Here is the input.
Amino acid sequence: MAALMIQGCGSDVGKSVLVAGLCRLFANRGLTVRPFKPQNMSNNAAVTALDAEGRAGEIGRAQALQALACRTAPTVDMNPVLLKPQSDTGAQLVVRGRVEGVWQAAGYQDRKAALLDTVLESFHRLQAEADLVIVEGAGSPAETNLRAGDIANMGFARAANVPVALVGDIDRGHVIAALVGAHAVLDAADRAMIKGFLINKFRGDPALFDEGRAEIERRTGWADLGMAPWLADARSLPAEDAVVLDRAATGEAGRRIRIAVPMLSRIANFDDFDPLRHEPGVDFGFVPPGQALPGDADLIILPGTKATLADLAFLRAQGWDVDIAAHVRRGGRVLGICGGYQMLGRRVSDPEGAEGTPGSAPGLGLLDVATVLAGDKVLRRVEGRLTNSNAAFDGYEIHIGVTEGPATAQPFALIGGRPHGAVSADGRVAGAYVHGLFDRAEARAALLAELGAVSDGADQSARVDQALDRIAAVLEAHFDIAALARIAGLT
Here is the structure.
């Protein structure tokens, strides 16, 4: 069975995008391709297709994107182990799409080796249905302090006998040292799994790095499999890690409305806002900690979070509650999504510690609702219509908690004909649990029209799909695809 693993010299070297591009490239050649990531750590999650028992699960957002690149529905086998950080030392553990509890970092290091059988079972299931499985590593295999019990990089590669291409990020600098250093610190058996290297994110004339690539070959003995230029189209793809968040430029010519999103400490599913970043009539930006929310914002959106109570306290510590109250007094609008919706209510309670330490706190009091964080996690794809405009949307829910109160009598949307979310009496504050609310052009156009902006009318799914095709074409031109195919066992 053909398989190839893309590992990197560090986090955010572009592994996820390269895997997505290669998935689309080989799918465009008529192959049945599947993505796989043994272990992921991200609060950006996606809801999968229903399994044989009619249940949905959750996986990392990047693997859902890679499934789209393969033109197939996402399944829990594509990312069998997902860690969703809730604190600096603890994370929710999701195995094959279902929550298995909260694990502290030290305890998880002891537990993860036991998950290898689960990981291999999911991998072999994908192999049975595909011509090619493209595997994404996590972090770097050169983090030798984490090698014992590893299931994300070389531990998996050796257990499944999957050859590896190692990626270095030249945009960061020291790429020669990163690749040669990895060769130096890996043990002989791990080093032997690496069949070649790839350079990513090069800007300028590629001939300027010819000698550098030759130097890496001389020092490592690994094959040079190609160098990708800076992929501008990657900006159209949903990002997985909060490290890539930055503030959008402001004051650009022709921009008319301003939308601001505070960067909560456990912000989740922030790719909800990708469609807004592309809108020519919108000045969109994430506001980092330590900065006030802009006084001239037309709309403040409170995003999803992995820990609602903790991020509610974080929001207050930043003084953003005061900024939001002043914004509402000036007639500004506020929209809460998922955890942000919960924060807008009168109170948030977590009696059983579903998201950390049990507790309760007053909300922002902008919607007459209250939330109890209890019960099973809701995981489902949804389709519905906005109540104000009847505009159609689709998206997904992924949350713990039930939100109830008088404000729900004026729902934000109808899903399957049933009311969903809440709107304040004056219509300026609203909340809902739906992620992906802005993806569909019809719904986004209606929401922006309420603010006085005209949408570009593009569906986000079409924008992403076109970007994947363009990225695949660039990789075709700059990578040695024939060599990658041979390494994977296709020829």
In short: The first helix runs from residue 15 to 28.
